[in-house]
Specification:
Blueprint (H helix, E strand, L loop, with lengths): L1 H5 L4 E7 L6 H5 L2 H14 L4 E10 H7 L9 E4 L4 E3 L3 H8 L1 H6 L3 H18 L2 H5 L6 E2 L5 H10 L19
Parallel strand pairs: 1-2, 2-3, 2-4, 3-5
Length: about 170
């Protein structure tokens, strides 16, 4: 990101991110500390960023790939296969509904309740549902990805780079 920003090269982020793992094992490798660098860099870049969610977009990992927020990029679109959530959906159900699931004494009914909660989470996290909450610009057919990227690049004005030279418009590339 910093290298692209240094030379005013637009960034295309293809997002398929299961999130940033947390917990004692991940903390031993300082994964969160290293991944947080993407937020700091993403918040300070001046070069355009475009995001395409091709599959999973979970938690802070997906947001880091989008420059810190799905609202930050020039555009954020998703393929219909996009899945969204604060974290992996199975884990989110286990953590978020732990007390409710523990209250169900019958193991078979507990598994049924868990599976229904996971299915509901997947339904809520579908690309079409997320686009209806204004976090995404559109849900697109994968065949339209190139058109979105080219449209984004063509919308960029010719501007002076930090070294005083003009960045060419995409039509001159």
């Amino acid at each position: 990101m910093q290298l692209c920003d240094s030379f005013d090269i637009p960034i295309l982020s293809l997002i398929d991110c299961p999130g940033i793992m947390v917990g004692p094992e991940s903390e031993k490798t300082a994964l969160v500390r290293h991944a947080s660098r993407m937020f700091v860099v993403g918040a300070n870049i001046e070069t355009p960023l475009m995001s395409v969610v091709i599959r999973k977009a979970y938690g802070l990992g997906a947001q880091a790939m989008a420059g810190g927020s799905f609202n930050s990029p020039l555009f954020t679109v998703t393929w219909p296969t996009g899945e969204f959530g604060g974290m992996g959906l199975e884990g989110a159900v286990k953590l978020g509904y732990r007390k409710e699931l523990e209250a169900i004494k019958d193991p078979k009914k507990r598994v049924e309740a868990y599976e229904k909660m996971v299915a509901d989470s997947y339904q809520r996290g579908r690309a079409v549902n997320m686009a209806s909450h204004f976090e995404l610009d559109d849900v697109i057919d994968p065949a339209e990805t190139r058109n979105w990227i080219m449209g984004g690049l063509k919308s960029l004005p010719a501007t002076k780079q930090r070294d005083g030279k003009k960045r060419p418009n995409i039509d001159t590339w």
